Amino acid sequence: MNQKFANQTGKSSLGLRKEKRPNSTYRGGQHTQVYAGFTVSFSNLNTFLLVSYIVGLILFLVTTIKFVLFIPKILQNTPKPFVSRTLILCGIYTIVAASSFTSLLVPRALLFCESISVVTFALCSYQYFCLCVDYAGGESNFIRIADDVKVFNMRAPPCCCCLCFISPMHITKDRFMKVRLLILQLPIGLGLVYLILNVVYLEDSVLYSNISYYFMPFLGISVLSGVWGLQMASRMFSPLFIEYKLTPKYIAVQMVLLICKLQPLIAQIELTINGSNDNGYPITRKVYGNAIVQLLILVEVIILSFWSHYLYGAPSNAVKNKEKDDIAST
Question: ∠ at Cα 315 (309, 316), nearest 5°?
Fold first, then answer.
């Protein structure tokens, strides 16, 4: 009987060991076959991946150091009402760079890192709207300033073709609140959807692969609604506050979404059409594709970081000039 129990225990142990092997096609499902884990990747390093890791680390450090060096300039030159939101909008690129570098090192963390990047974009989008309101001196002051101008225009991308028959209108508190809610739903909606997707992926990656497509409409509706609200907000504030360069600042924020979602989507479509070719597991075509995409994101993030640091020098100079004029007039 002891021998029988030992045989059963041995079989059970062998079965458990078989399930826990990194090359298992059952436990990891599709993503285990496609992406190598951190340990497996470093045990099968080749020249391309090694160079990618080194270049990615350099790009990440440059982005981070550039932001850290820019913080004293923001604190010194930017007026206090704008400091916190300016820091957040300039710091988004460091967060995206950290997420991309983590995805480069650990490809199986791609969904989690993408969630951080996209939700960070959504939060910064609302901060951009709030910063525009701060530039205007508050919601009530903006409505008073724009009283004679029809600044509320619903014919803004991505709904410009569908609402071409609606002419521009005067801004009111009710319309202002609708724009605010369109932008505010963006971090809430994206956060909830990505939270569900991450929980499902951690529980069962095969189930995630089967149901993830059903969440795309919710993501699309939330993103399109938020971008529509941001476009209307940018077009409302920009003509009245040209010195703050609000349109380039909006583009600098908007580009984060494009580089974090569009490029991985194109790579995924290409691999779906041409096949993933997993014969070289664990270093497959998807691992190479992921490394290329993350390096591109890191390069683009550095460019956006330098551009945003240039743009956010304008408000402080404009406000300082106004303050000097006020002092001189008194």
Answer: 90
